């Protein structure tokens, strides 16, 4: 399909769309777009392209905007936003997320609904525009090109709807926005699931493959992308609908691996899927393009740039964005006396340390020439300050050097290994030494031409291997699961490493499967979903978190602000 012309607009369009997002594109009451029609707006091929792309930029923002990333990670056993001597207490909202004690009055329960429906509304509006074109030749387009764009918008909408289903379960299916003055009724999870599944199946034949698009595939929903969303849908079907669809998941995942939906391949380096070369990587099934000069939402304050200690940019040599802010860190694996906790969930850094030759365990370091090593920030972080003197990263609560620990407490200026008197370790008692930080996407120095140039890899080929491995494990084929997992895992260890699973899969059990999902997809915004699928989100114990009284918090309440503006909606059970 000759639709590569769209790709050249992805970066160009992102800059102006960024301003639109900041101006409030999540406002569902805005009526501007229902006055845009193919008759009075779409006059040229470029108009059609811009209309097609509008929903993509908002959707990229929605990965971290609207509290979506925060709720997926902070409600799980992976990440935390602790009270750091008064910083990040924020009325206790992050503690309520951690303890699963949120209420409909919390603004973050409305945020994902508004953010995701903002994308659904934009995609649907553009769909109505493009579906209203009766003569594509007027825009120097073929029917095949136009149908492909329509199919991509439907896949984008399906991706947004999957996330709405995951967050709220009882959602509204939007298929028309022009001329509408109020939202429609909620449908059952089963009906929503069926709609999403059918929309993806209908779109598949009309989509391009990554082979056809080549290096222009990033930012485009292809056959592989649509098939991958079906894998996600089927993998979680038992949670969403009560019906097991693991067999369908396995069939679809095997088809992707076998090349039925495009030409995909795993990278040989663990960091390559996140590096500046990832737009052209065959491991990137779907990614949102980013660049330093235009859009780079994963490097925004809502996500990875606030997953760093205050002066970490000085350690990186990347000073274009100013100082970071430690909103997110990994939950600790050890108490203030450095004794490992005895619960089995969480403890992400310790889960990595289980396999001691894991190359990701190295401290993150820029090596020059757009290369890095290691995935974590820990210990002291030295750098050369503006006076040309050796210095080390410090916090904003004291002049002492920070020593980053896999612990939470009031360590202040205590040297490593020093016992402190305050033994309290919880969400309300931390400092800037508390917690370690993962660095998945690189922060190359400010003079590096490839700084902040990675695409956000929303769907990686590795996910398909892990999904199929889980299906095989659940079907009793541990050996088959081990082979699939090792196919990805081997890049994390030296050649011949004893850390690879035994061929018979005998090391695999439910806990190890869940741990391995954590290791591969740490801080990629999916942990809550994985815990729910394995039945541990409400029943599990992790750092400063006891099991819930019941399972109603598997889904979020519809925020009171949403209910106030949409009286036809009914609150979710338990709220």
The radius of gyration over CA amounts to: 23 Å
Query: With helices defined by DSSP (H or I, 4 residues minimum), what is the helix count?
Result: 18
- CATH architecture term of the domain at 41-191 and 525-557: Alpha Horseshoe
**Beta-strand residue fraction:** under 5%
Query: Can you write the helix and strand succession as a string?
Result: HHHEHHHHHHHHEHEHEEEEEEEHHHHH
Name the shape in a single word.
globular
Strand order across the largest sheet: 1-3
Biggest sheet features: 2 strands, antiparallel
What is the CATH T-level topology of the domain at 41-191 and 525-557?
Serine Threonine Protein Phosphatase 5, Tetratricopeptide repeat
Determine the N-to-C terminus distance: 49 Å
Mean pLDDT, to the nearest integer, reads: 93
């Amino acid at each position: 399909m000759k639709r590569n012309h769209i790709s050249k607009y992805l970066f160009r369009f992102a800059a102006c769309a960024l301003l639109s997002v900041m101006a409030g594109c999540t406002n569902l009451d805005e009526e501007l777009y229902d006055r845009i029609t193919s008759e009075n707006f779409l006059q040229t091929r470029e108009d059609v392209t811009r209309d097609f792309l509008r929903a993509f930029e908002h959707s990229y923002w929605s990965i971290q905007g609207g509290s979506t990333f925060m709720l997926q990670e902070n409600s799980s056993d992976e990440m935390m936003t602790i009270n750091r001597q008064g910083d990040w207490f924020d009325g206790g909202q992050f503690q309520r997320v951690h303890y699963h004690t949120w209420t409909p009055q919390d603004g973050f329960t409305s945020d994902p609904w508004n953010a995701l429906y903002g994308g659904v509304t934009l995609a649907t509006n553009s769909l109505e525009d493009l579906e209203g074109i009766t003569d594509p030749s007027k825009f120097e387009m073929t029917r095949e090109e136009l149908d492909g764009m329509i199919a991509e918008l439907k896949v984008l909408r399906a991706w947004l709807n999957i996330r709405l289903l995951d967050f709220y379960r009882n959602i509204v299916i939007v298929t028309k926005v022009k001329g509408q003055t109020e939202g429609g009724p909620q449908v059952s999870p089963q009906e929503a699931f069926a709609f999403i599944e059918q929309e993806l199946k209908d779109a598949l034949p009309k989509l391009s493959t990554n082979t056809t698009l080549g290096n222009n595939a990033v930012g485009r929903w292809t056959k592989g992308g649509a098939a991958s969303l079906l894998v996600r849908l089927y993998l979680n079907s038992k949670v969403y609908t009560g019906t097991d669809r693991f067999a369908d998941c396995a069939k679809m995942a095997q088809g992707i691996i076998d090349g039925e939906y495009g030409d995909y391949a795993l990278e040989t380096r663990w960091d390559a899927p996140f590096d500046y070369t990832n737009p052209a990587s065959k491991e990137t099934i779907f990614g949102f393009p980013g660049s330093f000069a235009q859009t780079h939402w994963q490097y925004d304050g809502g996500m990875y740039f606030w997953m760093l200690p205050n002066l970490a940019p000085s350690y990186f040599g990347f000073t274009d964005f100013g100082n970071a802010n430690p909103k997110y860190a990994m939950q600790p694996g050890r108490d203030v006396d450095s004794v490992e906790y005895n619960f089995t969930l969480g403890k992400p850094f310790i889960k990595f340390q289980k396999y001691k030759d894991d190359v990701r365990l190295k401290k993150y370091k820029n090596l020059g020439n757009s290369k890095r090593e290691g995935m974590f920030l820990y210990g002291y972080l030295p750098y050369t300050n503006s006076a040309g003197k050796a210095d080390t990263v410090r916090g904003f609560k004291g002049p002492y050097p920070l020593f980053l620990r896999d612990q939470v407490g009031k360590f202040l200026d205590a040297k490593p290994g020093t016992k402190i008197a305050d033994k309290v370790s919880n969400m309300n008692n931390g400092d800037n030494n508390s917690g370690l930080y993962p660095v998945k996407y690189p922060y190359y120095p400010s003079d590096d031409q490839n700084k902040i140039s990675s695409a956000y890899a929303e769907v990686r080929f590795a996910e398909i291997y892990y999904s199929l491995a889980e299906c095989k494990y659940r079907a009793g084929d541990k050996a088959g699961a081990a082979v699939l997992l090792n196919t990805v895992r081997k890049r994390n260890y030296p050649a011949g490493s004893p850390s690879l699973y035994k061929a018979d899969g005998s090391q695999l059990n439910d806990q190890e499967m869940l741990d391995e999902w954590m290791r591969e997809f740490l801080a990629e915004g999916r942990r809550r979903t994985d815990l729910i699928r394995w039945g541990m989100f409400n029943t599990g114990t992790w750092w400063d978190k006891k099991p819930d009284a019941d399972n109603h918090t598997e889904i979020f309440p519809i925020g009171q602000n949403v209910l106030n503006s949409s009286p036809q909606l009914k609150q979710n059970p338990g709220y």
